[in-house]
Amino acid sequence: MTTRIDRRFETVQAEGRPAFVTYIMGGDPDYETSLRIMKALPGAGSDVIELGMPFSDPMADGPTIQAAGLRALKAGQTLRKTLEMVRAFREEDNETPIVMMGYYNPIYVYGVERFLDDAVNAGIDGLIVVDLPPEMDAELCLPAIQHGINFIRLATPTTDDRRLPAVLKNTSGFVYYVSMNGITGTAIADTSAVNEAVARIKGHTDLPVCVGFGVKTPEQARAIGASADGVVVGTAIVAAIANAAGDPVEAATALVRELADATRNARLAQAAL
Amino acid sequence: MNEQAKPNSFRTGPDETGMFGIFGGRFVAETLMPLILDLEKEWEAAKTDPAFKAEIESLNTYYTGRPSPLYYAERLTEHLRDIAKKQGKTGGAKVYFKRDELNHTGSHKINNCLGQILLAKRMGKTRIIAETGAGQHGVATATVCARFGLPCVIYMGATDVERQAPNVFRMKLLGAEVKPVTAGHGTLKDAMNEALRDWVTNVEDTYYLIGTAAGPHPYPEIVRELQSVIGRETREQMMAAEGRLPDMLIAAVGGGSNAIGLFHPFLDDTDVRIVGVEAGGRGLNGEEHCASITAGSPGVLHGNRTFLLQNPDGQILEGHSISAGLDYPGIGPEHSWLSDIGRVEYVPIMDREALDAFQLLTRVEGIIPALEPSHALAEVIKRAPDMAQDQIIVMNLCGRGDKDVFTAAKHLGVEL
C-alpha cells in the first residue's frame, strides 16, 4: 500500500532533489495561529509536515521545543485538538503528507486503537514516537502499520550496523537520521560525518533517509541535502514563530521559503562545484 | 485493572523484555537503546561474578557500616499499647525498625550508589550524572564519585535547590557540580528530564546513576537487587531476635527503592502482610499529593510504564509532598505490578500525619527520622494498636531527619 509519504518522495526523487521536511508544534502559540502556519507551509516549500504533539515532559527536546510544547498546552492544546488540526488542514490539502511526532504517553492514555482510528480519519500518514524503540514495537508500531500508517523510526549515531536491521525492520515511509547524540536544536558539528552515516544507512535500506536535529541555516540545509533524501528543520522554525515581531505566520513562511530554496538547490550547488 | 492469575512466585520479575506484567519496559529514545542493552549485558555478568559481589560486600561493611541494626522500638511499642488500652483494646504489635538511617550519608541511597558505580567502572564510563529531589541520592552519588575519583554532575530542580540548601552545599563539598533545572516546575521530575537530556548528549562516556527503582529496564531490577540487602538482613536479624518472620512490613514509597529493598526478599512469604505508604500530601481530592498508585493511572514516563499522576490528556502533573524525597508523580514499575496483583497494599499518609509521627518518634525513641519514613511511621501508628501484642511489624527507617529540621521547623511555625 502506498501512502502520501511514499508518493511525495517518489515525486521529489523524480525531480532530482531532496525533500524539505518542516516541524511545527501543534497548538503553538495557540490553535488558530498554529493551523494558519500549518496551512501556509506547503506554499512556502514544505514537502512533508511534521506536527508535534505537545507533552509535559519532552525528554529528547531542547529548550526551544520544550517551551513551544508548554505554550501549546497552556493555550489548551490536547491530542484530540492536534488530530482536529489535521482534519481542518485536510479540508484544503489532500496531498501534503503529515507525520505526527511526539511521545508515547498521550497516545497510550488516549487509547492506541482509538487513536489510530481517529488518526486515519483525520488524514495522518505517519508517526514518529521518540520513546518507542524497536524493542517496544508491539505497543504502537505494529498496530499503526495495520492501520496503514507509516511508523518512522529514528536512527542515531549510536545505531551501529549490528543494530540497524532491527531499527529498519518495521520502518516505512522514510528513515529519520538524527544527526548527533543529543536533543533537538543543538548545532550540527560535522556535516561530512552525517553524509557518511546517510550512506551507511542507505546500504541497509531502499527507504528515503531524511536528516534532522540541528539543521538551522540554508548552508547546512544545502550541505545535508547533497546526500540525504530529505532535510528536516524544526527548532529554527519553532524559534522563528516564538520570536516573531509581527505575524508569526509570515515569520515562519519567510524562513521556510529560504530553507526550502537552499534544500531544493542542494544537488545543483553540489553539481556546480 | 484486569484480573491477573497469581504467579507461582512474586520474585521472578522482570521478564526478559523488562516487564512486570504490563509495567516496566524500555521506553527510551533510540540514542540510548544500545547503551541500555550494554548495561543489561554488564549487569547480567556482574550479578553472577563473585568478585563484584565481594567488592560490594566489603564496601557495605567497611564504608557504609552494614549490616544496619534491626532495633526493637520498645518505648514506641509501649506508647502504642497505651493508646490501644485507652481505646478499650488489648492490642499493640511489637514494632521493629530496620535502621538504614544509620548508614554512611544518612539513608539507604548509598546501597544503590556503591553497586552502580562499580557497574559504571566495569563499563569503562568516566563521567557520572544523577538526578536528585531532596538531595539524599545526590549526596550519596557525590560521595561514591569522590570515593572512586569520577567527575559527577547532579541535576536538581531549582525549587529543590532552594529548599534543600544544606544538601546542595554537601554535594559541592564532595566535588560534584550541581546544575539547577529551571525547566517545568523545577522539581524532581524536571531534574530527571534534564539528566536524560544530558545522557542522550554524552552517551559515549557517561553513566546515568538512577536513584530509585524506576526508569528503563534494567534499572528497576538493578536498584532492587542492590537495595534488597535491606530485606535479606532483616530476615536474618528477625530470625535471630524472634525466631520467626514478622507479620507485617511497612515502608514509604516515592520511587520505591527502600520499599522494594525491604519487601522483595519477603514477597513469597505470603503470611507476611506488606504495606507501601504513599505521600498523600494535602489530601487526595485535587492535585496536591504524590499518591501515584492510590490516585493515579497507568502511563509511560522516564523509560517505564507505571502508575502516574496525569491529566486525561496524558500530561504529567507535578504533585506535592511535604517530603521532597516523595515528591515525584510516578512510582517504580514493580510496585505498580505488586499493587495490581494484590501482593502489596498501598495507602496514602497526609503531610500532617507524617509531621506528627516525625515529632512522636523524636520524643519517644530519641530518633529524628527523615520525613519520608515518617510517612511509614504514621501508618505503623495507625495499624499497631489493632494488631495483637504478639504480632510483629518491621518498618524501614530509611533516612535520618537532619536534612528535614528546617522544613519541620517551618511547618511547626518555629523560626530558626
Automatic annotation (TrEMBL), chain A:
Pathway: Amino-acid biosynthesis; L-tryptophan biosynthesis; L-tryptophan from chorismate: step 5/5. Keywords: Amino-acid biosynthesis, Aromatic amino acid biosynthesis, Lyase, Tryptophan biosynthesis. CDD domains: Tryptophan_synthase_alpha. Pfam families: Trp_syntA (PF00290). The active site is at E50, D61. It is an enzyme of class 4 (lyase). The keyword Lyase applies. Signal peptide: none annotated. It catalyses: (1S,2R)-1-C-(indol-3-yl)glycerol 3-phosphate + L-serine = D-glyceraldehyde 3-phosphate + L-tryptophan + H2O. Belongs to the TrpA family. The alpha subunit is responsible for the aldol cleavage of indoleglycerol phosphate to indole and glyceraldehyde 3-phosphate. Tetramer of two alpha and two beta chains. This is Tryptophan synthase alpha chain. It comes from Mesorhizobium liriopis. The lineage of its organism: Bacteria, Pseudomonadati, Pseudomonadota, Alphaproteobacteria, Hyphomicrobiales. The gene is trpA.
UniProtKB/TrEMBL annotation, chain B:
It catalyses: (1S,2R)-1-C-(indol-3-yl)glycerol 3-phosphate + L-serine = D-glyceraldehyde 3-phosphate + L-tryptophan + H2O. It is an enzyme of class 4 (lyase). Keywords: Amino-acid biosynthesis, Aromatic amino acid biosynthesis, Lyase, Pyridoxal phosphate, Tryptophan biosynthesis. This is Tryptophan synthase beta chain. The keyword Amino-acid biosynthesis applies. One of its GO terms (molecular function) is tryptophan synthase activity. Pathway: Amino-acid biosynthesis; L-tryptophan biosynthesis; L-tryptophan from chorismate: step 5/5. Tetramer of two alpha and two beta chains. NCBIfam families: trpB. SUPFAM superfamilies: Tryptophan synthase beta subunit-like PLP-dependent enzymes. Its EC number is 4.2.1.20. Belongs to the TrpB family. Its cofactor is pyridoxal 5'-phosphate. Residues 69-399 form the Tryptophan synthase beta chain-like PALP domain. The beta subunit is responsible for the synthesis of L-tryptophan from indole and L-serine. The modification N6-(pyridoxal phosphate)lysine is found at K109.
